Amino acid sequence: MTTAETISVKETLDLLDGAFFGVSQGIAQGGYALWLGSGISRDRVINLNGILAKLIEFLRGNVTADPACAYRKALEKILDMAAPSAEERASIDIGQPAINWPCLPRLVSLLWKQYADVLSVEVGTKRLDYLLWDGLDFANTFANQEADAEHLAIGMLALEGVITQIATANWDGLLEGAMRELGYADDFYQITVTGKDLRGPPAAVVLYKFHGCALRAIAQEDDYRPLLIATTAQITGWISNVRFKIVRDQLQALAQRSRTLMIGMSAQDKNIQNLFGQVGAQQGWNWIDSQTPIVFSAQELGVDQKAILTVAYGNDVYEQNRVAICEAACLPAFSKPLLLGLLLTVLATKLQTLASDVHAPALNPGAHNAIASGIKHLRDHVAKAGNADRLSLAKGIAAGLARGRHQLQDGASPDGVPMYFPIDNEPPHRMKGMPRTAATGQREAAAALGLIGLGDEKAQWAASVDDPTDPRSGALRLTSPNGTVRVFFAANDEKITSLMDCGAFGEDDPEVVLICSLRVSDRQQRSPQAMLRDGKIGPRYIAFGPMLSDARSLAELQDNFRSEIAI
Questions:
Q1: CB of 256 within 8 A of CB of 279?
Q2: Is the per-residue pLDDT at 525 higher than 50?
Q3: What's the pLDDT tens digit per position in 328-339?
Q4: DSSP-assigned letter for residue 66
Q5: DSSP-assigned letters across all residues of 99-129
Q6: Helix and strand counts by DSSP (H, E) for the chain
Q7: What confidence tier does 255 reach under pLDDT thresholds 50, 70, 90?
Q8: SS (H, E, C) 336-348
Q9: What is the 3-state secondary structure (H, E, C) of 498-530?
Q10: Is 29 helix (H, G, I), strand (E, B) or coil?
Q11: Residue 46 confidence (pLDDT) above 70
């Protein structure tokens, strides 16, 4: 049985194309804000289970023989919260590392929903955040982590202009780290802990870190360490603390003006529930909207998530429609497959939008739909091929798209991983018919990708990607029993020359197909048949714009395209 944990990226795409099409459409239109919890960072930063185990070991390791030892008292208090059985209590040997306790996994699972109470335990006269700052070795635990697939996918969605508002209870700096890995500065995100953080220059994305920011707490301890929200008292106090009023107001407005997709967040904190209660109090969203207003990435909804639905929609509405409301709100895919699925959906939708704008007078709507289905086929192909290693999939999407875009528009193919080059920084619905895309060559390149996808679907060739860090790698590689070629895209003749000048390929490279969005100069134009006559084998240059303009049908276009690729 497929679950939210075992679901593949392709199966997630099926959900987004089907029962949750409204969510994928809303994301592509920029209509959802992301609300993120610890679940998106569990493979990179110590998660709640790890935090609890680490704290238990920290206290145990500091226990002394003194009966009044503050560490012993704190440890006993935390163990009492878990309410272990007499047998479990008897198995606990404080003289042994906690990892050796047979009951430790169960203790941690029992304490999981009490993490704020655990962090509230006082250790003698130490600072109230002693367990957080010292017990967890905060500065080392939360500094310089490597971004995971989720953070890279969110970064690309932000760069593509479909995510502009993010709210997170996480302290870590993984989203910022992902943006740096994609080639952009930290200030792409406007990191916001208190109202004063909103008063600087505006950024592309506002990132509300409403429980505090680890990187700032480490770098500016006096200012930002007191703003870390961890204990029960701090979570409760956040609701009325004047230092957070502007951010509270902004988050309440965010929940009212943007639909909500919660990923990796259990929603157990009362301040989060209170924020969404304000939405319901002001006659907010209607649960029957086609793009569901509040959606959780979850296998099934817990008490706290249902509480948010109840306060947001109103008690009477929820009680009368609870089954349908919960079904619409529960998207059964966890963060990695969901965010990668959303990313692939957005990228494919943008390519389909571009392809629909090509100048091809004789192509009817059915032909355009077929080209769009070819793009979708490539999308699904990528999802299946990359499912086993989702981090590599995220990095491959970023690097592969970046290389193809730089080659197309800049005529450049730099060494190493190129800076991420978004398809467009506007959502797809704002790209349709825009004059600025006409000169970029993207429309023709997108249509060519659709034809490549149709050819792959018919087994005319197999499409794959070479190492995207290699400057001699094209956007794709096509392989058939008759041969293999690297496929490059260039917006115009000038970019072809630039690609040769930078060493991406040479005049005598027989393994290259160059698809040019405009015409190709006579010097470069060489058909496969001419190569066979004079024996000079080199790149195949396809003037794809004129091919589209002249095509009298999709079948003719496909035949001409295939004969020019000639494998």
A1: yes
A2: no
A3: 999 999 999 999
A4: -
A5: GG-TTHHHHHHHHGGGHHHHHT---TTS-TT
A6: 26, 12
A7: very high
A8: HHHHHHHHHHHHH
A9: HHHHCCCCCCCCCCEEEEECCCCCCCCCCCHHH
A10: coil
A11: no
pLDDT band at 35 (very low <50, low <70, confident <90, very high): very high
pLDDT at 485 over 70: yes
Q: Is the pTM of this model over 0.85?
A: yes
Query: Could you tell me if 35 and 262 are in contact, meaning their C-beta atoms sit under 8 angstroms apart?
Result: yes
Return d(Cα 396, Cα 468) in angstroms, integer: 7
* Encoded tokens for 557: 């276009």
Which of 548, 466, 4 has its CA nearest to residue 12? 4
Query: Do residues 294 and 329 make contact, with C-beta atoms less than 8 angstroms apart?
Result: yes
Torsional class of 436: left (φ above 0), alpha (ψ -120 to 50), beta (otherwise): alpha
**How many C-beta neighbours within 10 Å does residue 346 have?**
25
In 3D, which of 286, 389, 298 has the Cα closest to residue 338?
Answer: 298
Confidence label for 526 from pLDDT (cuts 50, 70 and 90): very low
Identify whether the C-beta of residue 334 lies closer than 8 Å to the C-beta of residue 296.
no
How is residue 428 written in tokens? 């797809």
Residue ranges, CATH 3.40.50, the chain = 9-44+147-336
**Residue 132 pLDDT > 90:** yes
Phi-psi category of residue 490: left, alpha or beta, with phi > 0 → left and psi -120 to 50 → alpha? beta
Among 1.10.260, 3.40.630, 2.60.40, 3.40.50, name the CATH number for the domain at 9-44+147-336: 3.40.50
With a cut of 70, say whether residue 42 has pLDDT above it. yes
- pLDDT digit string, tens, across residues 282-314: 667 899 998 999 999 999 999 999 999 999 999
Residue type present at position 321: N
Per-residue pLDDT of 452-482, as tens digits, reads 999 999 999 999 999 999 999 999 999 999 9
* Residues 6+ positions from 186 with CB-CB distance below 8 Å: 176, 179, 180
Q: Which H or E run contains 563? A: helix 554-565
Rounded-to-integer distance, Cα 213 and Cα 204, Å: 19
Cβ pair 539, 512 in contact under 8 A: yes
Report strand pairing: 462-464 vs 330-331.
Answer: unpaired
Report DSSP letters for 160-228, one per residue. TTS--EEEE-----HHHHHHHHTT--GGGEEEESSGGGGSSS--SEEEEETT--HHHHHHTHHHHGGG-
Average pLDDT over residues 419-448: 96
pLDDT class for 281, splitting at 50, 70, 90? low
Q: Are 248 and 256 in contact (CB under 8 A)?
A: no
What stretches of 24-81 adopt beta strand conformation (E)? 32-36
Evaluated on CA atoms 122, 128, 132, 133, the torsion sign reads: negative
% of the chain surpassing 90 pLDDT? 85
List alpha helices for 239-362, DSSP H.
245-257, 270-281, 303-313, 315-329, 335-356
Provide the 8-state DSSP code for 44: T
